[in-house]
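Record type: monomer structure entry
Structure origin: computed from sequence
Chain ID: A
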Amino acid sequence: MYKIIRFTPASQRYYPKSLNCSSYMKEDDIDHTSVDFALGASRIGGPIVDLPESLDYPKNMFFTAQLDLKKFSAFDPLDFLPKTGFLYFFISNSGEHGKVLYANVEANQLTRIIREHDGWFYDGCLVNDIFNEKEDFRSRYRYCEAGEDLDGYDEGDMLWDDHAGSEKSKIYGIYTHCQKHEETIKAITQEADVLLLQIGEDFTGEGVWSVQIDLVSLIHRRFHNCRFEWGQT
């Protein structure tokens, strides 16, 4: 059984105005010039990031997440996250590289920065709700359905579900990657590393981006030791 921090998206998304996304925006969606949310608000993607003077927007990377740790650490079942400050996540063009930055500052020390682009995570969405949840490997299996042509399986048999868990965004818990086999997923999850962030399909629509860090590096705030992986669903 794994204790995790789940977080879910707000209903409204926002897009870079320069992309003129109005043709496929949903009814509640807006361009970034119309957003109205507080400095430091937790969010995934988009052209808006709130950075302190001590941090520069990484060159040749795209903003993926900003987490207000005062709010996230209140739900931390393992007590590993910093209690205050902000975590920032950026992704490279390949999706297999990135950068994590930490700033132990208050929200009033942040400056809003706009970077419009059409690359990874070009649209943004606020984090709506943060809560605790438990998960175990039973959730990664499903029943074989009638008519499925799977060698060695009959209707009603339990089999590994490659896409299970892809719908969640979370911190901690079971590693997710639909192109990796059951044994690999279990081995990665049971290592001493920590799933620092999973951005799931509830934010991306398709695909899962995972950020892992070893426990010692997390405790000592060595976020340059993170590893990144994109799993296309």
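Annotation 1: The first strand starts at residue 2 and ends at 15.
Annotation 2: The mean pLDDT is 93.
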